[in-house]
Amino acid sequence: MAPHTWTSANDLPAGRLEERFPEHEPLLSAAEAGAEANRCLFCFEAPCIAACPTHIDIPRFIKKIATGNLAGSARAILEANLLGYSCGRVCPVEVLCVGACVYNAWAQRPIAIGRLQRYATEHVLAGGPAVLAAKPRRPGRVALVGGGPASLSCAGTLALEGVEAVIYERARWGGGLNTLGIAPYKMPAADALREVAFIESLGVGLETGVEVGEDLPVERLFEEFDAIFLGIGLGGDSRLRVPGEEGPGVVGATRLIERVKHDPVLRLAPSTRAVVVGGGNTAIDAARELAKLGVHVTIAYRRSRDRMPAYDHEVEQALAEGVHLVPERAPVAVVRQDGRLVALRVAEAREGRPISGTESEIPADLLVVAIGQTRLPDFVSRFPGVELDGRSRIVADPVTGRTGHPRVYAGGDCVNGGKEVVNAVAEGRDAARAILAALTRR
Fold first, then answer.
1. What is the chain's Cα-based Rg?
2. Can you state the percent helix, strand and coil of the chain, rounding each to 5?
């Protein structure tokens, strides 16, 4: 099957709601980047490196910015993290590299590592000089199922070493959640697709609109490829399973974000009142998107604010943007009039469980469910020897990504349950290294 790509940003339909969002952190100018880079102390045992799951040599890439060597800076980043561009934009740097910066201990502003990382890699994605070169083609073929960050990282690493890597993605575009699910004020879909195109430029094949197990039998993968990498992410949005949930006005959070980013037909009335159920980062992203679109947004969370799994700095930003938070409230029913959503009935909650007799209603004509995503056990069962743990995550070696089948590897959300993009990138890269070692031993 010949690789066929649909990653051009020009293929995105016009009129998408995401086009209305200004960038949360715009690209630095050359002067701004130079001034910020020269603030770095270039620590010898830099804590920021240890805090990065991909262990980018941060002082090295920043020093190259300070000396005007942008190509060298980008190379230093991409050698460790092929998706360094998107990670520079969407990583929670406040709790990773920036959070570890030594300036924090002195109550001074830490280095803007993420913004410098984007600055260094931007020109590569904009068609600048190539900073990485693939080795000559060598024996070995690897199929990658799913086109998200883990597979992109794995495939790119393999291609640079001369191994043929082909990604099969069932969606219209590659990129996974970077393209479909990242809040548009952090990174729009067009920029995610530019990064996918960069990975393809390394020699990676990408087949979109192909559903493995349906369009392409799993047995064929085992016949035609030496190894298989599963980067299938998670399933659809989980459900509340309360009375009245079925019907118009109720949508999963990841589905809502996807429509904001891709659906030119989606429009929200200025009078819309939305309730977002959940307390994780996806709930915060959905709430902030809606608030930026002029929607009155309330987050209902079943535990106290200090137990919200979302990053505290994200919660603070949401509140500053007008999002209302109602903690210790558990949903018990969706209220409808003539089939139309009018409110979410909630009850006071203790340890996440509703207390009878304490019900109240939050007016709403849009309900966004952000309580996690389902797993894909039925799909995984098609791969012999691949097992799931008690939380329906693929069991894989934490170092190599190898599953119970010696030729099948896995990484990303389907293994870690839903961590950051940078974790998926690290797992994909490490799996590629293990696959390369296995191919060498053959």
1. 22
2. 40, 20, 45
Contact 301, 326 (CB under 8 A): yes
Domain of residue 417: give its range: 141-235+374-441
Contact in structure between 172 and 6 (CB atoms under 8 Å): yes
SS3 for 42?
coil
pTM: 0.95
pLDDT in tens, 280-322: 999 999 999 999 999 999 999 999 999 999 999 999 999 999 9
Q: Is 4 exposed, middle or buried (0-12, 13-18, 19+ CB in 10 A)?
A: exposed
Strands (E), 88-214: 141-145, 164-169, 205-208
Whether the CA torsion 195, 198, 203, 206 is positive or negative: it is positive
CB 352 within 8 A of CB 303: yes
Look up the CATH number of the domain holding residue 65.
1.10.1060.10
Query: Is residue 131 situated within a structural domain?
Result: no
Torsion over CA of 286, 287, 289 and 290, rounded to 10 degrees? 120
**φ, ψ at 228 (rounded to 5°):** -130, 135
Phi, psi of 105 (to 5 degrees): -70, -20
Phi, psi (degrees; rounded to nearest 5) at 134: -75, 145
Last residue in a domain, options 318, 344, 369: 369
User: Minimal CA–CA distance to 298: which of 239, 357, 362?
Assistant: 362
Closest CA to 407 of 219, 220, 228: 228
Look at residue 82 and give its three-state secondary structure. coil
Secondary structure string (H, E, C) spanning 330-349: EEEEEEEECCEEEEEEEEEE
Question: CA–CA separation, 230 vs 408, rounded Å?
Answer: 7
Which residues is 331 bridged to in the sheet?
346
3-state SS class at 126: coil
Residues in CB range of 278: below 8 A, 6 or more apart = 253, 299, 301, 369, 370, 371, 372
State the amino acid at position 63 in one-letter form: K
Query: pLDDT tens, 380-423?
Result: 999 999 999 999 999 999 999 999 999 999 999 999 999 999 99
| Closest-CA residue to 81 (of 117, 126, 119, 105) | 117
Structure tokens at 148: 């998200």
CB 59 within 8 A of CB 40: yes
* 38 and 74 share one domain: yes
